[in-house]
Amino acid sequence: MSVSMTEADGATRERRSDEGTEADRVAGIMDPRLPQLKTGLDLEEMRALFENRVLHDSESVRVERCDLLQARYKPGMSCLFSYSLRLRDRRTGAAAQRVFYVRTYENNGSRSRYLKALSQPLVTVAGAAAITHLPEREMVVWAFPNDRKLHGLPALAAPGPLIDAAAKAAWGPGWRIDEAEHDLVHYVAEHTCTLRVRVRVEEVGTGERRSATLYGKTYYNDEGAEAFENMGWLWNSDARRRGRLRVAQPICYQPEARVLWQMGIEGTPLIEHESDHAAFPPLLEKAAGAIAELHQTDLPLVRSRSLADRLESLRESQHRISIAAPALAGSVGRIVGRLVDQAPRETNRPIVPLHGDLHLKNFFVTGSDVALIDLDNLHHGDPLAEIGSFLAGLYYRNLITEHPLAEAQQSTSRFIEAYRRRVEWAVPPRDLAWEIATALILERASRCITRMKPGGFAILPSLIEAAGQFCQNSR
Predict the structure, then answer these.
(1) Which of 457, 437, 445 is nearest to 15 (CA)?
(2) How far is CA 430 from CA 70, 121, 196, 436, 468, in A?
(3) Residues with Cβ < 8 Å from 467, sequence gap 6 or more?
(4) How far apart are CA 104 and CA 350, in angstroms?
(5) What is this structure's pTM?
(6) Secondary structure of 105-119 in the HEC alphabet?
(7) How would residue 401 be classed by pLDDT, with cut points 50, 70 and 90?
C-alpha cells in the first residue's frame, strides 16, 4: 500500500517559508482564557523571570540559558511548561543545571492553586523556594524535585535507600551497593520521572562484584504497580524465554514512592539508526518482528481500548484542533466524519496485547536484536491500531524533519511486509489506511497543539491533508 504525499510535502515547505518564526506560528493558537501562554514560550522572558523572580540570589547567580523541555496544553484550562536552566556563579564561574516547571492559569486562577500547593509536603531547594507564585503572570513555579502530583519524586531524586532495596530485590539480601551514580533521564512533570542508576554491587560473604544499569521510574498514580505486574507476565512468557522477544527485566515495585525498577538493556534507540540508510531497513524489519511477537503473546492484561473508545477520542481531537486552528476546522470535521462512517467495526482480527506507545525511541537495538522498552501502556486492542499509530509516527517524522515523504513510504512498506509475514491474521490495506488516517488526527495532529513542539503547528495543515489522503484509501 502506498499513497502519494508529494503535494502535501511541497505545501509544507511553502507554508514554512511564509509563516515566519515558530513563536509567530504558535501565537496562532493563543488562548484568550490563558493570556500568558506567549510568555511561557518566550525563553528570553522566562530566563529573566527565573533570574529576577524565582532564584533567591540573582546578584550571585546568573541564568545563562533557559531551555523549554516540554509543554502540555489544555485549551481554555491550563498549560504546563518544563524548563532546564543553566546557571553560572558570577563569582566562581561554576556552572549548574536546574529544572523547574510552571503552570499558567486563567485570569485570577493562580492564587488559589498556589495556596493549595503550599499545603502539600515540600522539600527544601537551594537557592529558590520550593514553590513560587508570579501573580501578574498567573503562574505557579515548582522547583525540582517538588511536584504537584509526583509525591515519590523527592525520594527518587535522592535514591540511596530506594536503590539499596532494588539491589537486594535484583541480586538477593546478601548484596550491597558498592558504588552508584545516577542521572535524570526523562521528566514529565506531574506524570512520571525516570532515573538511570549505574551501580557496582558486592556480595558481602564472597566479595563477588557486578556492574549493572538500573532504571527507576516514579508515577503520579498506581499505574507503576500494574506496569510491574504486566512486565512480569511478559518476562515469564514463552516468547521471551525462547529468545523471540527481548524486553527489560522488571526488578521490583516500591509502593511507598510509587517507583518501578527494571534492569537496563545495553544498546541504542532505533531512532539513532534512522540516518544510516543501509542498516536501518533490516533493523526496521526486526522491529516489525518484535511487535509481531508481542501481538501473538498471551498476556492477562487488565486494560483494553476498543474501537468505540478511539472514535470518542477522535472526536475530542477534532474539537481540540478546531478550537486551536479554526482555519482547519472544516477539513478536520469532514475527515473525522468520513473516518467515523468508514470505521472497521467488524473484522476477523483477534484482540491482542499492544505496546501502547510504539515509536522509534521505544525500539532498542541491542547487538543483532531489537528489543521493546517503555512497557507502561500495555493493553489489549486491535493489532492494526498499533501498526497504524507507528506508521503515522514515521510520516510525522518526515514532515517535521523536512525529509521527502517517499522515504517514509519505503520504510512503511518494508515494515508492513515484515509484520504481515510474521502474524496469523490478514493486514487489509483499507483497514490499515483507516488506522493511519485516524492516528494522524488522534495522535499526531492533536499533539502538535497540546505539546507545542517546535515545528508542530507549521506542519499541522500537512498532517490533516495526509490524513485525508489515507482516508480516501480506506474506502
Answers:
(1) 457
(2) 35, 53, 42, 10, 13
(3) 335, 436, 437, 438, 440, 441, 445
(4) 44
(5) 0.90
(6) ECCCCHHHHHHHHHC
(7) confident
